[in-house]
Here is the input.
Amino acid sequence: MRIGLIGAGRIGAMHARLLDAQPDVAEVVVADVDPARAVVVAETLTRGVAAGIETAMDGVDAVAIASSTDTHVEYLIAAAKAGLPTFCEKPIALDLENTRRAIDAIDDAGVSVLMGFQRRYDPAIRAIRDRVVASGSRVPYLVRSQTHDPEPPPIDYVKVSGGIFRDCLIHDIDAVRYVTGQEVVSVRAIGAATGFPEIAAAGDVDSAAALLEMSGGTLAQLSGIRHDPVGYDVRLEVFTPDAAMSAGWGDAAAIVSLEPGAVAPADPFTNFWDRFDAAYKAEIAAFVAMVGGKATPAATHHDAYADLQVAAACDLSLSEGRTVYMSEVS
Here is the structure.
């Protein structure tokens, strides 16, 4: 199969390599707003070719969208009209209205879309999900999910990111929905900008937390910080009547135990590439399988909308200092 890839930046280049490694992919057609960058990425592949943005969807069997967020909606609509199965990095858009516009086009066309919430393909997180599903009616008591970045993103990015909930903690929102199989009923969010005044000046926070009430009765806690001095610390913990489970704990976990005799991590995770290497590989393999009619997406465009709704509710809760119910956000 021939796969069109739109976006040859940092994440696009990674997806290009992963697509190139798939046995069922005969050619990766790389396109970018910067044609020279598309050429550079294509030349690193064994089966890559560069193309212009305007022809990226011509003669391909599917398309992967890894361009800037502000282009996702139009590319998704174009892919839907062309009848192409699509992979799209999160988010579809930073607002619900434009996200809905893309979703309507996708649904009208009836094409399959896999959204880039790669944590659904993380082996440990999938194992937790399987254990929860296997337990049947035994609802989890509590879920804790966190994303602690080693360094804040560039301030120019912060200004257009949509804020910590829509940009960062939306992954945790999606992971909680995924492992519990429940939807969010209400949120209470708080945040602070104590370490980076430039983030506060940009209208965002550098530390955030939220309590989610889930539809099945489970409680969920989210936390996010833009600066973790040890490294990149993403963990998920689930407590059920049968088990206490975690994903992200291990020798590379970016946290130091002060228990007597404990050993500090020698090589903690410092970026999302390393932490989710297996997940990214499994995600692209699942996309190729979806194109071939052998798999269904773990995260769809409707999941992207539900996650964004929760992030928007968290923003509203943060700004107004109160519990927000999902019925208030549409």
Summary: The longest strand covers residues 184-192. The chain is about 35% helix and 20% strand.
